[in-house]
Amino acid sequence: MAFSRVLLGFLGLFFTASALLLMFLTLLGGARNSTPLNEIYFLQVDTRNIPGAPAVSRWTFWNLCAVGTNGRSDCGTSYPDFPFDPPSHRNFDTTTNIPAAFIGTSHYFLTSRFTFPFLIIALFFAVLSLFTGFLAMCTRIGGYVSSLLAWVALIFQIITTCLMTAVYVQGRNRFNSNGQAARVGSKAFGFMWTAVVCLFLSCILYCLGGTIGRKETGYSGREHRRRGFFSSQPAEANKEANP
């Protein structure tokens, strides 16, 4: 029983740590021009016909990056929660050769901006779940607390990933329809959806670890009380009556 709890708690820790690694890699993608961060991005578009834009542009959480001759991002100054809003001054600051679907709407700006804070919240609860996960290997309450924290992290991770998928897939389709080759970043999307799966597995494993030993302990305790109250006293009385 104890070994099963330790094993389930360890597996929960493993999947929580794996999810955190993938989430942090996605969060920091584009923050620095070093491998592997310069290979992680949400959307890549051929923007050579947009005035003042690089030949190929990539969007990350931190900036709009050009693509170097080595095929990796070459990013400038980083700004947290960088929006996906091509015609605005934050991106290209022009409407020339920008798909019409991006002009006159705040949909892409707002949707892309909300992904960053939701991911931060998911990371916060996932980190808490990781720390309490060590208790999950020893105690039932640790398993339940870790599972609860992992569930909260999972909810915000799902929201983040769905928003990210919706806005950048829509953006890709708009650029492709405008004759500008675009594709989503396989690493960023792969990392985020894999993190969803890892957090889900963590929730299940922590919860299973918390249930181990519950029925056995409760039943034996009740049985002991029954025997102590109803059985032991009459047996002693019979011994005194029949020496």
TrEMBL record:
One of its GO terms (biological process) is fungal-type cell wall organization. Pfam families: SUR7. Coiled coil: none annotated. The chain crosses the membrane at residues 114-136, 148-169, 189-208. One of its GO terms (cellular component) is cell cortex. The keyword Magnesium does not apply. It comes from the Eukaryota. The keyword Protease does not apply. Keywords: Membrane, Transmembrane, Transmembrane helix. InterPro entries: SUR7/Rim9-like_fungi. PANTHER family: PROTEIN SUR7. This is Actin cortical patch SUR7/pH-response regulator pali.
